[in-house]
Design goal:
Layout (H helix, E strand, L loop, with lengths): L1 E2 L13 H19 L3 H9 L3 H20 L3 E8 L4 E7 L13 H15 L5 E7 L3 E8 L2 H9 L9 H12 L7 H6 L8 H4 L18 E7 L9 H10 L3 E7 L5 E3 L5 E3 L4 H11 L3 E4 L2 H16 E7 L1 H23 L4
Parallel strand pairs: 3-4, 3-6, 6-7, 7-10
Antiparallel strand pairs: 1-2, 2-11, 4-5, 8-9
Helix pairs in contact: 1-2, 3-12, 4-5, 4-11, 6-9, 9-10
């Protein structure tokens, strides 16, 4: 545990004065009871020996202790669920996802694993869905509505091409809308015939100061692909953009790595998973790489990733919690005093 304002810990030295003052008041009360012959006062003095007479002051002492400790603003590393967290699933929908080396097909296995992932993920984590083939688009904005996500997953339409880098940039544009990431300009560059009127209204990309990879804890990207980039933004260029913004990318490589596969119709297809590049994407961004060669392995990967994003150990300031607890103790002390003795004393 550390403290943002450690100099305020000296205030804790004042705590022994409170019990001393309480004992002094009790003795003074007993002396007053001896001086006066009133039966009511003697009875009240006798009540002072009851444990109930001391409980409210003890609670009040604990409340003061908590407030003095909170003044130092303690910070501790505690496991907490992500607050306002977003996860973006970027799933390859290229035609190679029809291949049957992962049963029944790569696409069906990916869809079922994604739905299992959604079911096991905490309900307070928003999930968005990005699909990519020759182009990349947002299939579902980050939402807590799991039914909408399932419908989007069931509605995948396969296309030609594999734009892995573009998918990463689309995810970043969704997470950081104020950065004004223009996918078209990044893909095709400045067009020789000038911009359209709509393009002229677009603000330039925001200049950012790079942060440590993986330091952005409010979001993560889970990227699933079964091939290699054939079009769009360079994959490692896009990974560098994510790393500079602190966004982790957990990568799932699906299917074969040796190039041998076949479609459901039995047609042989030559394709090869670009494992070196995908591993580098995960390494650059502080994420993890997993290879899933079967449907069972794919489900296992998503289960591990789900467990990974549920809880984060992070430094959290305890001042608010201590202050709230101290206020409850003070209210309890006042309430018990009123109920038992008809006054706050």
């Amino acid at each position: 545990m550390s403290y943002l304002w450690p100099e305020f810990l000296w205030l804790m030295l004042a705590l022994p004065l409170l019990p001393a003052a309480y004992v002094w008041l009790l003795r003074r009360r007993r002396q007053a009871a001896v001086r006066f012959s009133s039966v009511r006062i003697v009875r009240a003095a006798a009540e002072g020996r009851s444990w109930r007479r001391h409980l409210p002051p003890v609670l009040l002492l604990l409340a003061f202790s908590g407030l003095l400790f909170a003044a130092a603003r303690p910070v501790a590393r505690v496991p907490l669920p992500w607050a306002r967290a977003s996860i973006l699933l970027a799933i390859d929908v290229s035609l190679s996802m029809r291949v049957t080396d992962v049963k029944p097909t790569r696409m069906v296995a990916a869809q079922e694993a994604a739905k299992t992932f959604l079911r096991d993920l905490p309900r307070d984590i928003e999930v968005g869905l990005v699909t990519f083939a020759g182009s990349s688009q947002v299939a579902q904005r980050p939402t807590l509505d799991r039914d909408s996500l399932v419908r989007a997953i069931d509605g995948f339409q396969m296309q030609m091409g594999t734009a892995v880098g573009s998918a990463i940039v689309v995810c970043l544009a969704e997470l950081f809308p104020d950065h004004h990431l223009d996918i078209g300009e990044m893909t095709f560059g400045n067009r020789p015939h000038g911009r359209s009127l709509d393009d002229k209204d677009k603000p330039p990309p925001k200049a950012i100061t790079p942060v440590a990879p993986g330091s952005y804890e409010s979001a993560a990207i889970i990227l699933l692909s079964d091939g290699r980039r054939t079009t769009g933004i360079e994959t490692l260029d896009a990974a560098k953009m994510a790393a500079d913004r602190g966004v982790r990318i957990h990568v799932v490589g699906l299917g074969t790595v040796d190039g041998a596969a076949a479609t459901p119709e039995g047609m042989p297809v030559y394709l090869q998973l670009d494992e070196p590049t995908l591993r580098e994407v995960a390494r650059m961004t502080g994420g993890e790489y997993h290879h899933a060669g079967t449907a069972e392995m794919l489900r296992s990967v998503y289960e591990k990733l789900g467990a990974r994003v549920q809880v984060q150990v992070r430094e959290t300031e305890l001042t608010g919690l201590l202050t709230f607890g101290s206020a409850l103790l003070a209210l309890a002390a006042a309430g018990l005093s009123v109920v038992w003795f008809g006054r706050i004393a």
